[in-house]
Amino acid sequence: MDTTTAMVGGSVLALFGGVLLLWCAAEVSLRLRVRRRGVSAVATVMAEDDVHGQLDSAPLLSFSVPPSVGGPGACGIAGLVIARPRGHTPLRRPDRFAPGASVRIFYDPQRPGRVVLAAGEAGRSAVVDLLWSALGVGCLAVGTGLVAAAGG
After folding, report:
1. For the chain, which residues make up each domain, given as ranges?
2. Distances 143 to 23, 57, 152 between C-alpha atoms, Å
3. Which of 6, 39, 84, 128 is 20–30 Å from 74 (CA)?
């Protein structure tokens, strides 16, 4: 392999792997923080009129928040929040997320649109998080190896 190609390819792979690892760590940290410090609620899965929304595996959820939610400057009026949960969702939307179904969630009281499914509702998110992390580590290792081989 040409030295320039190995350096560029290795740099791109290493950069991709590093960014993927940082994204995985930030996303897992956010979901854990919202589950620990967030407010528990029950949301209702909404029916979607948009064709693209129907193809999204993350269900559209609606739930109400009390007037005190929203942080400094909040208007003090109870409201209805419509959001999609963060984190792992399967390729196809499971039957338990049919329109009208109730789902246990946690939301961030400072940003009510930041929603995660409760641990029992999330499914096998740890396995998927590990797979994405393994992909990131693999890309980082191969990229670093290519750069080291081309440089030495």
Report:
1. 3-151
2. 18, 32, 14
3. 84
98-107 pLDDT, tens digit each: 888 899 999 9
Q: What's the pLDDT tens digit per position in 29-81? A: 998 899 899 999 999 988 877 766 556 667 888 998 887 655 554 544 567 88
Q: Please, what's the largest Cα pairwise distance for the chain?
A: 64
Tokens of 113: 């649109």
Spatial separation of the C-alpha atoms in residues 144 and 138, rounded to whole Å: 10
Degrees, nearest 5: CA angle 129-116-53: 95
Instruction: Give 38's DSSP letter.
Output: S
Tokens for 6, please give them.
């190995």
Provide the 8-state DSSP code for 66: -
Please answer whether residues 117 and 101 qualify as being in contact, where contact means their C-beta atoms are separated by less than 8 angstroms.
no
DSSP, residue by residue, 87-136: S---SS--GGG-TT-EEEEEE-SSSTT-EEE-HHHH-SHHHHHHHHHHHH
Helix (H) or strand (E) segment spanning residue 77: none
